[in-house]
Amino acid sequence: MFNINSLNEDEKFALLFGILAGDGCLSLVKGRLKFISIVGGLDDLPFFEEIVSPLLKYFRGKATNIKFRKDCNAIEFNFSDVNLFNLFVLRDFPVGKKGLKLVIPKFFYEKDLLKHVIAGFFATDGSLVLTKNPNKYYPRIEGNGIFKGLILQISNHLNEVGLSGKFYRAKRINDLRDFKVLQDQYRFQFNGKKNSIAFREKIGFVNLKHEEKFLNFLRYSEEYDLNIKGISNSKHHLIRNKVRL
Fold first, then answer.
1. What is the pTM of this model?
2. What are phi and psi of 109, to 5 degrees?
3. d(Cα 105, Cα 67) in Å, to the nearest integer?
């Protein structure tokens, strides 16, 4: 299990910066009240309790309550903290809509903190996807967003540290009230078992749900490979129902 106590202060802040970049924001309410929000799904509760909450306590000096939003089956941290807000702004985190303004600032490159920013972003806005091809499941590391600069930075860094994947540009339609807005979306994607193992070694799965999914895949992959030994390719489809993911 990931342990934030092993991180120094700069590494903790880089991780929190990545978390906020993935599923958080800075907001000015009434032009003067400085709010920080981090949102997740119900399956992120262990991650919120064991990672995000201790990070916030470290920087705020006090506990921050997790709020449960029954209206949309979500959980969130939503609080006002002038000092932490200003610290994010000092490190060039955009206030309000992140959009194309969101990038990983030069500071994190200079301090060799990029892996921690990426780990935080992936923990909140990344996915470990398992797809069947054609009979066996294979993993895929991916992340999506409208912030082209950030997605491209992550893709470039992962390729630089030994993974092999691509950066994509796509289109999506956002429904806003009674009209539709066509907006660009960007993705980094790294396919296969080798890339997933490398991601865990070079970056790390900070969110417990990703770590558990990855370990379950390794168990499945080993069992599947063991079961197809000595069996012709034409009969591998018989194994897919025997070995459960």
1. 0.92
2. -70, -45
3. 30
Question: What CATH number belongs to 4-242?
Answer: 3.10.28.10
Beta carbons of 24 and 37 less than 8 angstroms apart? yes
- H or E element, residue 130: strand 126-132
CA distance 198 to 118: 14
Question: What are 89's strand-pairing partners?
Answer: none
Q: Is 92 helix (H, G, I), strand (E, B) or coil?
A: coil
Ranges of each domain in the chain: 4-242
The answer to which of 51-65, 72-86, 154-168, 179-193 has the lowest mean pLDDT is 179-193
The predicted-structure confidence for 115-162, as pLDDT tens digits, reads as follows 999 999 999 999 999 998 888 899 999 999 889 999 999 999 999 999
H helix or E strand, kind and range, residue 26: strand 24-29
Segment 227-234 long-range contacts (CB within 8 Å, at least 24 positions apart): none
Return the HEC string of 150-189: HHHHHHHHHHHCCCCCEEEEEEEEEEECCEEEEEEEEEEE
What the block records as the tokens of 128 is 């470990």
- By CB atoms closer than 10 A (0-12, 13-18, 19+), residue 54 is middle
Nearest to 48 by CA among 70, 84, 72, 24: 24
Residue with tokens 């960007």: 186
